[in-house]
Amino acid sequence: MPTIYDFNVLKTNGERFPLYKLEGRPVLIMNTASKCKFTPQFDDVQKVYEQFHAEGLEIIGFPCNQFGEQEPGTNEEAESFCQVNYGVKFPIFAKVEVNGEEAHPLFDYLKKAAPFQGFDESDINAKLLKLMVSEKAPEWLVGDAIKWNFTKFLIDQQGRVVRRFEPTDSIDVVQSSIQELLQLA
């Protein structure tokens, strides 16, 4: 059974980074963008990183320009934006595509391991996201495609996907899942 340790990603400087270097640590992986309605989530995610990094949590971000062209700059510009505007200390890697034929293999794996569970129709933000996706990228409404920026995947200490979080999921739910994972270790 594959794990995230089977994949390599690129740093913003183009250097290859094998994910097996994160072995034994829980990891939160997310696709990001600097010009997105969800971009302020960097604040909350950075707080989660500060809270749990000493306990082993790693967070890694992958800028993506597939959603409304909300990450138009270079790898270095995306990384700098996160650090300067949100004080992000966790690693931001090179830009990737997360859907379609050019999707990075890591994200193909993540989507298969944690399929899309549907939009929470009782949440107004989820309803709005569904409308936005149906208007701007209707091909991603079906199947396990990542629906928008700031989709997150929680990985356990063995490199297996534990859970997928949609951009509209509360940071409290993400934080609670991380706490549970750390207590199981």
Automatic annotation (TrEMBL):
Keywords: Oxidoreductase, Peroxidase. It holds the Pfam family GSHPx. InterPro entries: Glutathione_peroxidase, GPX_CS, Thioredoxin-like_sf. Belongs to the glutathione peroxidase family. CDD domains: GSH_Peroxidase (cd00340). One of its GO terms (molecular function) is peroxidase activity. This is Glutathione peroxidase. It comes from Paenibacillus woosongensis.
